[in-house]
Design a protein that fits this description.
Monooxygenase, 14% strand, 42% helix, 10-stranded parallel beta sheet
């Protein structure tokens, strides 16, 4: 204890915090137990940015308290397997969270507006294999047309067919990365999405595999695909004409770095070879 007291008398707060920054997680957890002063310094949120909180059934009861703790105010990532309104309220209060990954969680008892508020204040949200009601899906999309911080949204195995086509299209154009895998999109929705992307957007990555895109105009599809950097339209019932237009346009002008069109109709081998010289990763 004498050595600790001596160090505390010699090192200013800023220097002690810089020392703590150099410690691996295990040692950082240990030093905050040494004395009250080290705990006070060691509670600085910037020291705990590396933490990824994982919400499970056994810990969801005290997770809101964890999120509210001073130590974890700069934590950026939350992985969720179990959800509650109390958890989402803590997410809304948290100043540092940027990423939420949700896998196989059931939201049926959660207020749609609360869920929408939590999602739209984050930057990246992944909702995979999680049951959402039509009201919750609509609330999220409607909120995103307003003041949303969201840049990346991935939805998988979530039914979006009830969402207004115009609202869904507006949502997609506001994002930088979108994943809509197996989301039961209607022909009207996919046509609206690509028409909106053809006009203007900031999107760079589109993953929409598993949807039926056969009704989308081939020229519109070709223009949109080649404006983006990464496009996954595997297993989307593309016609040979649509695929040919996409690859032909890539030979004229393209931003594409990665294109996945597997699981659709065939295209000419020569066209595929030529497109492969301009698209770094081409899967047909």
């Amino acid at each position: 204890m004498f050595e600790v007291a001596a160090i505390n008398g010699l090192l200013p707060v800023e220097m002690l915090e810089r020392v703590f920054h150099l410690l691996p997680p295990r040692d950082l957890k240990a030093v905050v137990l040494v004395c009250r002063w080290w705990r006070e310094v060691g509670e600085a949120p910037a020291l705990w940015v590396w933490v990824c909180l994982r919400v499970r059934r056994w810990n969801i009861g005290y997770m809101p308290e964890v999120l509210d703790s001073r130590r974890l105010q700069a934590v950026r990532t939350l992985e969720v397997r179990e959800v509650s309104e109390e958890l989402l309220q803590a997410v809304v209060r948290h100043p540092g969270l940027k990423v939420m990954v949700v896998v196989m969680a059931y939201f049926s008892s959660v207020d749609p507006e609360l869920l929408a508020q939590a999602v739209t204040q984050l930057e990246e949200v992944m909702l995979w294999y999680s049951y959402l009601t039509p009201q919750q899906v609509t609330a999220i999309c409607t909120a995103m047309t307003g003041n949303s911080q969201l840049k990346t949204l991935h939805l998988s195995d979530i039914n979006l067919s009830t969402v207004d086509a115009g609202i869904l299209a507006q949502v997609v154009t506001q994002l930088e990365e979108v994943g809509l895998w197996a989301t039961d999109l209607t022909p009207q929705q996919v046509e609206a999405i690509f028409a909106a992307l053809d006009t203007s957007c900031q999107l760079k990555i589109l993953r929409i595999g598993g949807s039926n895109l056969s009704s989308v105009d081939p020229d519109v599809l070709a223009r949109v695909a080649n404006k983006l950097e990464t496009v996954d339209i595997a297993k989307t019932q593309l016609t040979g004409q649509q695929m040919t237009r996409i690859l032909t346009r890539s030979l004229l002008t393209t931003n594409l770095k990665e294109l996945d069109m597997r699981g659709n109709e065939e295209v000419e081998e020569e066209l595929r070879r030529q497109a492969g010289t301009v698209i770094k990763v081409l899967k047909v």
